Amino acid sequence: MKCFSHNVDAVGICKSCNKAVCITCAIDTGRGLACSENCQQDVTEINIITDKSKQLYGIGTSGKLLPTNILMYFFFAAAFLGFGTYKSISNEQPDLFLLVIGGGFLIVAALAWHRNKNLNINC
Ligand SMILES: [Zn+2]
Ligand SMILES: [Zn+2]
Predict the structure, then answer these.
(1) From CA 101, how far away is CA 113, in angstroms rounded?
(2) Which domain holds residue 115?
(3) Any stretches that span the bilayer, and where are they (predicted)?
């Protein structure tokens, strides 16, 4: 692939207008290449929009921990399911009581988590 304005090999694609650019034309915005100052402005704006929509939909915020109440539900679910499984194996018959309680907690945790994810979108 050649640069759109020079007859040399392109090093990348302008993030705004998708033209191929050579090392002389390319402007590195830090997060994508631009072919001109106009495009550099566009690329910066695209990056801001991408960041904003990521925040809006909670993408890429993996550093955020789950709320404590949901963690508690998951903890109880794991405890009951774990203990239920252990008793089921040692008694050689399923301990339905513990398994059902564990399953119930798991459902509550999943519902609470789902509701919490929906509430994070404030648009
Ligand atoms: Zn461009
Ligand atoms: Zn060029």
Answers:
(1) 18
(2) 68-119
(3) 70-89, 96-114
